[in-house]
Design a protein that fits this description.
two-stranded antiparallel sheet, globular, alpha/beta, eight-stranded mixed beta sheet
Length: 264
């Protein structure tokens, strides 16, 4: 059964503890593919996280890296491939669970999906959508509007300017890398602003050796009305610790593991 987006997007709900599948159930299936996304929902994920870049002909597709080499049977930069050429690429070719002894998704018709493929294939699932390049924002905006998916998606990016067209309602953004750093410093110096232009934060467990979702950081974000989602959390002990601090979502490669932790 496909999980359905509630009236309140769980990614924006301070009371929710969403399990967010990192590139889908990427610990068990090829990342950023429909196989990983559908498996994540089956394993109890409340939302998915994915990455978007553009093909040579300007189509937004779901791929983390700028190049195809790590995750597919082809090499080279995505921006040099048209969508038609990308459709022939095997996105399951390099996925292995046993250090290369077997490749269970090779030649299994696993492809790099377009953003529209995902929006249509998972029509009511909440999505944390990471924009990996500034040039993609207009195409992403168009896809969300055309597929009536605006309210169930939260736009995120390490690149502050990649969120420019999403800064006004009805779109919702997560804090950019610059904005996360600004709030972190504000908490350290006890100068937390009265308001912020984003609706949630998606932060790493650690950055340059320092813990990011500290108790003070999470509390400050909650006072601003912003849930804090933490990546990448793959064990129950860490998830429980973070939930105890008031963190909201766990971005995980193994939704089933964290789903069981939330039930305990």
């Amino acid at each position: 059964m496909v999980a359905r987006c509630a009236l309140v997007n769980p990614l924006l709900d301070l009371a929710a503890r969403p399990i967010i599948a990192h590139r889908g159930a990427s610990g068990s299936a090829p990342e950023n593919t429909m196989a990983a996304f559908t498996l994540a929902i089956e394993q109890g994920a409340d939302a998915i996280e994915l990455d978007v870049r553009l093909t040579a002909d300007g189509v937004p597709v779901v791929l983390h890296d700028a190049a195809l080499d790590r995750t597919t049977n082809r090499s080279g930069l995505l921006r040099d491939f048209t969508l038609a050429e990308l459709r022939a690429v095997d996105a399951g070719a390099r996925f292995t669970l046993d250090r290369g002894r077997t490749y269970p998704f090779k030649r299994a018709d696993v492809r790099v999906p377009t953003l529209t493929d995902v929006l249509r294939g998972l029509p009511e699932v909440s999505i944390l959508l990471e924009i990996k390049e500034m040039s993609a924002q207009d195409a992403v905006r168009q896809a969300l509007v055309e597929e009536k998916a605006v309210e169930r998606c939260v736009l995120a990016s390490e690149l502050h300017d990649a969120l420019g067209v999403f800064r006004e309602p009805p779109f919702a953004t997560a804090a950019s890398g610059v904005e996360i750093g600004a709030l972190y410093r504000a908490v350290l110096f006890r100068r937390v602003p009265a308001s912020v232009p984003y609706r949630c934060l998606s932060v790493p467990l650690r950055h340059r050796g320092l813990p990011v979702p500290t108790g003070g950081f999470v509390a400050a974000a909650r006072r601003l009305g912003c849930p804090v989602h933490v990546w990448t959390v793959n064990d129950a002990t860490t998830a429980r610790l973070l939930w105890g601090r008031g963190a909201a979502g766990m971005v995980t490669n193994f939704p089933e593991k964290i789903s069981w932790a939330r039930k305990d």
